[in-house]
Amino acid sequence: MPNSPLSVWNTAPTSAPAQRGDRYVTGSAAHPAKMLPALAAHAIATYTKPGDLVLDPMCGIGTTLVEAVRLGRHALGVEYEPAWAHLAEKNLRHAETQGATGGGSVYLGDARQATGHIPTAFHGLVDLVVTSPPYGASVHGQVRSTRESGERGVTKRHYRYSRDPNNLAHVGLDALVEAFTEILTQCRHLLRPGGHAVITTRPFRERGELIDLPSAALAAAVSAGLIPAERNIALLAGIRDGRLIARPSFFQMKNVRDARRSGLPLAIIQHEDALVVRKAPPLPAAPPLRAPNSEHTPTPRAPRKDTRSGFNSRTCTGRGSNHADS
Fold this sequence. Notes:
10 helices, single chain, about 325 residues, two-stranded antiparallel sheet, alpha/beta, 8-stranded mixed beta sheet
């Protein structure tokens, strides 16, 4: 992909249900925080090539895994909740029946011990990690009207990851960042030297306070020993005639309206941050030293440390986002 001063990924040309279509099995919509298929596909197409290995340590229903195998990559996923792990496995098998050329596996367990769940044969071979921390229950969930549910008023459903109090979706911000640092440390051990990780996240509000989760996630990655490479925008809104077409959930719209009525100038979130970090590449081999008596004996130098921490930019082309609509 060519370099560009822009860093916007056009990952929502259609709605999430339209992107999924018949590509995911029944029940997949019940997960409260599904990654957009086009977002996962764009990250995979940008940072890997066919035959590479992709990992999602908190894979949910397996969106990253499905998009990877459909693009001819191989995929590994770890999922804490048995129900979602089972659904991720079903989605992988469904992708195979639809012609996916890559292979994938799902492992049940805590991502904080990912190296213990992923077979050692894969350690140090992962080319790309794609993941997202759990956040902001206010943006999750689906609604049913009285006509659909038979109950009075609008009811909310599919807004819980689980009822397990140990699930990271139920912990506070400090505990979440600490756990996410552990998870990214595990990912660093699983990545090959020079391999990348794409972390998608967005800010959210908690009792009116803005929680800057993207910056916290980036700090967690640095603490885990990963090197910042890029900070991109992955659109949650469509683009039509040069304008953004918002696709908020019912509860996002309700929360924004309620906040504005109370005097808080809230706005609908139109994008996620796509943070790109990488594992340090291997140091180049030192050139052989000449014999001590040679007049051309070089002066030994310490290996240079990789200190490149600036952010590059990438711009989405149609290929990554269109894949999810096929």
